[in-house]
Amino acid sequence: MSQTATQVRPGGGGTPARTRRPPAREGRWLAWLFLAPAGVVLLALVLWPIVYSVWRSLFDRSGRAFIGLGNYQRIFTDADTFTALKNNLIWVLVAPALVTVLGLIFAVLTERVRWGTAFKLIVFMPMAISFLAAGIIFRVVYDQDPDRGVANAVVTGVHDVFSSSAQYPGARPRDADALPPAAAGGYATADTVEPGSTVPLPLVGVEGDALPEDPSAAQAAGEPAADAITGTVWFDFARGGGGAPGEIDDNESALPGVVVQALRDGEVVAEATTDDQGLFVLEGLDPGGYQLALPAGNFAQPFRGVSWLGPDLVTPAIIVAYVWMWAGFAMVLIGAGLAAIPRDALEAARIDGANEWQVFRLITVPLLAPVLTVVLVTMIINVLKIFDLVYIIAPGSSAQAANVIAVQMWSVSFGGAQDFGLGSALGVFLFLLVLPAMLFNIRRFRQEQQ
Question: What predicted TM-score, i.e. pTM, was given to this entire model?
């Protein structure tokens, strides 16, 4: 029996009419016709660069001599490239996990507050900023000067709350022979002093902003007791010049808050702090000779914060900038997955006596596992290709310490070396690193569709 579909003509006739179906071949050609422009673009911008990069990686710097896998061998023997590989490993292990965990925390917590939408908007806002702009922002945030860098402004503010800074940074004695530098830091008198003596300690090099707002005039010390040593610490400088060096002249400022110590055999036996007139009294001294010392703490430079972009901290600092940008992206994706979780499962667990932590750990996280996996793998792909933030944030002095594969690829190819053979090998190597994560994501998407 024929399998051709038939239908009866209208009007009552009995002659069947054949139904025409478009041939499958026509449908395929039509599909190829619409896919052709995208295929040409894909071939020109994706496939051909990959093939050419593989081919170019087999040649030397000039592109004339075939060296096989020599460039790939250099990847694992060159010190700069090895640093880039090590930093990429740190990025892969730290940044995706931080982004995913923070995104999960933000998504869960914002479900329970009325202003959750506003919070999500604020957290997601960095995604609207380009990597270039974000890099410039964090170069300023990590500036070493606390007056410019926000991070160091916070650190120095907290530090100064718990640790007092030096009173007179950079100050020094007027007479370096009478008060030379001490082995333990600071300054100590060259000659010993007996109890019952008065010792003037003039200083110079005091910065103007280190003086009190309304400084008192320095006063000469009175006659000391038999078991005491007295003296004055003052700024031995008169406005407009004049005056005798080493003597207290009119209008010379007292230096309050200076710590003075009495030393015997290198041990501190007495200590005093100068008052508003610069006077100090070291009491309770036994007969004998003492050295007077001004500890280094009086003159140390103030705490100026942390060198965030130094070689030791530059990679963690850039990772923080990356997390700041991408935590909102993870929060939105995880929040969408959270909204799709059946509320019956959560309520049933609560009715059975589970607390909120148990509901989160045993119900919410397992149900969100597919979404968390997608976010984590996407972030791994992203950090393997990281370039912009590292290139912009890391200063020249720390550029090598912050190096990653993408930056190294650019540096050897276009940064002056013009070694396109090694640059192509690094590009192919980076592609091979990213490929497994891309295939995993594609497979995951297909499984979800099925």
Answer: 0.74
Residue 61 lies inside a defined structural domain of this protein:
no
Together in a domain, 317 and 383: yes
Cα dihedral 253, 254, 256, 261 sign: positive
Is 312 in the same domain as 291?
Answer: no
CA angle 429-431-437, nearest 5°?
A: 120
Count of structural domains within the chain? 2
196-223 mean pLDDT: 83
Residue 23 included in any domain:
no
Q: Which domain holds residue 217?
A: 172-298
Residue 10 has pLDDT above 80, yes or no: no
406 belongs to a structural domain: yes
| Percent above pLDDT 90 for the chain | 33
Spell 399-423 as b/e; 16+ CB within 10 A means b: bbbbbbbbbbbebbbeeeeebbbbb
CATH number for the domain spanning 397: value is: 1.10.3720.10
Residues 382 and 344 in one domain: yes
Per-residue model confidence (pLDDT) at position 282 = 92
